[in-house]
Design goal:
By secondary structure, this protein is mainly α. It is built from six helices and no strands. It is globular, with a radius of gyration of 17 Å. The model has no long low-confidence stretch (mean pLDDT about 85).
Length: about 180
């Protein structure tokens, strides 16, 4: 398959995922059901250029944050934004390291590991925020993680679904074009 077709398909999947993140901002009961972690993992595995795979989730997150903040009248940057973005960077690095022999079992395992990484890093950032109200102690950190658990279920579900859709659609698309090019 040509690089242009491959890039176009990947870009299309990413645009759909971005739109779903923006729409998700308006469905309050699905907190953290978003495609960004899946995009970070997908980009790391499918893009040849590491800088592109790293830029992808960060730029998508920033663009969607700007759109959501403009619609809602909120600030784009929060006290814990660096931790949220840092979580996506760690997921991307994990994907780059796990790129070799990437199959279904590894994809699902990496999706779960990515959910956990994002949960731990982003909630640590919330705890570090002096305005969060959590005590600066181990107990305060544990309280923060406990309070984040209701969102974690949606993080896992969203990551598993979006990762499966992104990799599954990409796999079907590449196999279809590879078979068509061989004939």
């Amino acid at each position: 398959m040509s690089k242009t077709k491959q890039f176009g398909f990947i870009l299309g999947l990413i645009i759909l995922a971005l739109a779903s993140r923006i729409l998700n901002a308006y469905v309050p009961f699905l907190g953290n059901f978003a495609p960004v972690t899946a995009i970070a993992l997908f980009g790391a595995v499918t893009f040849e250029k590491r800088w592109m795979s790293l830029l992808l989730p960060i730029s998508l997150m920033f663009v969607s944050d700007v759109i959501i903040s403009q619609i809602n009248g909120l600030s784009v940057i929060h006290h814990y934004s660096a931790y949220v973005y840092g979580g996506f960077i760690l997921v991307n690095v994990l994907g780059i390291l796990a790129k070799k022999n990437f199959g279904t079992a590894k994809m699902l395992g990496m999706s779960l590991a990515s959910s956990l990484i994002f949960f731990l890093v982003s909630n640590f950032g919330v705890w570090m925020d002096v305005q969060s109200g959590y005590a600066r102690s181990i107990q305060g950190l544990l309280d923060c993680y406990i309070m984040g658990l209701p969102f974690f279920q949606w993080t896992i579900l969203g990551d598993l679904i979006f990762t499966t859709v992104l990799f599954g659609a990409y796999n079907v698309y590449t196999r279809t074009f590879l078979q068509a090019e061989k004939q």
